[in-house]
Amino acid sequence: MRTLGLDIGGTFVKWAEIEGERGKIRTNRSAEGVISVIRGLIEEKKPDRVGIAVAGLVDLEGRVRHSPNLRWMEGINLRDEFDAVVLNDATAAAYGEYRAGAGRGRKVVLTVTLGTGIGGGLVISGMPFVGASGVALEPGHMIINPNGKPCNCGRRGCLEAYFSSYAIERDYFELKGEKAGIEEITKRYRAGEREAVEVIRAATKYLSIGISNLIMIVNPDIVVLAGGLAFDIPDLEDLLNLDLFGIQRTEIRKAELGEYSGALGAAFIASDNPRLLGT
Amino acid sequence: MRTLGLDIGGTFVKWAEIEGERGKIRTNRSAEGVISVIRGLIEEKKPDRVGIAVAGLVDLEGRVRHSPNLRWMEGINLRDEFDAVVLNDATAAAYGEYRAGAGRGRKVVLTVTLGTGIGGGLVISGMPFVGASGVALEPGHMIINPNGKPCNCGRRGCLEAYFSSYAIERDYFELKGEKAGIEEITKRYRAGEREAVEVIRAATKYLSIGISNLIMIVNPDIVVLAGGLAFDIPDLEDLLNLDLFGIQRTEIRKAELGEYSGALGAAFIASDNPRLLGT
């Protein structure tokens, strides 16, 4: 059986076959553009099954419902369009890490993706947990500081308002008075620049609260950090309360599948056809 | 098949049969006392299967691991002692509400128990979620205010430090300068006493943050509030962000099974023998 996994992001459609090739194709920022890229890949690869991961909320009907980085995809039903399994990208990544990455063989795999926003995916007893309407695991919008900093979602004190590329860029600008993108700030942090270290350390404290809260709810045996901001795990471990009342030391590791984790996870889900928990 | 469900709390062992009788027996505060009550009930009822719910953390081996209100039970392995299914009481209550209460037929049932502390239980696709080491769903120890009020667990800013009987009693004393127990404060709140209303409204704001965070993680189709402090749902609904980006209005309801929810849930789990998710 040939399976094709796709991961639709803001600028690229990434694709992966389980034991085979992978690649990425830049898209113009339109639903038509994305759909024609997917159609082309399906015509070329002729898969028996297709899995699609989307950087946004996907409902149980396979429709993209809320996606700040893919506004042009909102309302599109990808399941009907391509007869595919359609899921949130962090959920797909969690399944990929469970099947072939840092979470292999684990009972409860929690993946937290750190980048423009914060996403989450959870695989329980080998089954992806999608929630009652498909939108479980949005840890970026846990409130960890009432009346705290404003979040893009319109509320205050969400985790994303403290730890995300835009939050770190904002805090760096406020501290240093100089505009710099997240990649530059990360580079300066690694080089030990005082302001970059201060801003990222402060943001990491909030991240550790968020992950600690997730551990209290989900009791995973492993937390897998993915995405461009998943650096610096030793520092994070020091901040986290990982011992759960002395019962379990929760392991925390970096993702192993890299930038194709979403596409590969979608391919595995299409291939394995696991029960989607919550449905 | 005869099934007996038991719920071990700080002062009573409650028992329930699925279609039959129920009752409670006061225990002295010792492991020997609790065990002899359970033994007596089993000899009397002669069940084929026994389910035991415990007000504390229970590991996957059936051992009570951490229980502030049942310190004398810590270390006891109830599964080996009685050949029983042993679970946290809030998880048992969630299963009871799923099978015969407010969560009947729902896909993702989240129960939050509000009393001395805050507990949680989650039933996904008909299966209780216990987590990788049996201790999932401890929402009372989500941190919702960094550097906030001290919690009994030794950390700061946990939900329980804001909404729980001890937190409300503390805040009432601080505001009014008069000691009163939670039942008296609740009575005064219902009578409209200014200080009681102020304290409980403030605590409820934090509870709404905690439940909103749980909804972001768990995406339940129903939140069932149980326990002595589960009053005042209309006020709580006004505070909650229940709409999940417009995708789903999450329903919030009071538990229907009352004080025997844990015992009845344990009986249903012993009878149905569902897969325990996370194991």
Describe this structure in words.
Two copies of one chain form a homodimer. With 279 residues, chain A is an alpha/beta fold. Chain A has two domains: 3-94 and 259-272, Nucleotidyltransferase, domain 5; 104-255, ATPase, nucleotide binding domain (Nucleotidyltransferase, domain 5), CATH 3.30.420.40. In chain A, 35% of the residues lie in helices and 20% in strands. Chain A contains eight helices and twelve strands. Chain A has helices at 31-45, 78-82, 89-100, 165-176, 182-190, 194-218, 233-239, 261-272; strands at residues 3-8, 12-16, 22-26, 49-54, 57-58, 64-66, 85-88, 108-114, 118-124, 127-128, 222-226, 251-254. In chain A, the strands form three sheets. Chain A has a five-stranded mixed beta sheet. A five-stranded mixed beta sheet of chain A has the order 10-9-8-11-12, sandwiched between helices. The first copy, chain A, has a two-stranded antiparallel ribbon with strand order 5-6. In chain A, strand 1 (3-8) and strand 2 (12-16) form a beta hairpin. In chain A, helix 3 crosses helix 8, helix 5 packs across helix 6 and helix 6 packs across helix 7. Chain A is globular. The mean pLDDT of chain A is 93. At the A-B interface, helix 6 of A face helix 6 of B.
Keywords:
279 residues, 8 helices, Nucleotidyltransferase, domain 5, alpha/beta, globular, five-stranded mixed β-sheet, 2 domains, homodimer
CATH class of the largest domain in chain A: Alpha Beta
The DSSP helix count of chain A reads 8
Sequence of secondary-structure elements of chain A: EEEHEEEHEHEEEHHHEHEH
The general outline of chain A is globular
User: Which strand order spans the largest sheet of chain A, edge to edge or round the barrel?
Assistant: 3-2-1-4-7
Gyration radius of chain A (Cα, Å) is: 18 Å
Largest interface: A-B, 51 and 51 residues
Q: What fold name stands as the CATH topology of the largest domain in chain A? A: Nucleotidyltransferase, domain 5
In terms of quaternary structure, what is this? homodimer
Number of strands of chain A: 12
CATH superfamily membership of the largest domain in chain A? ATPase, nucleotide binding domain
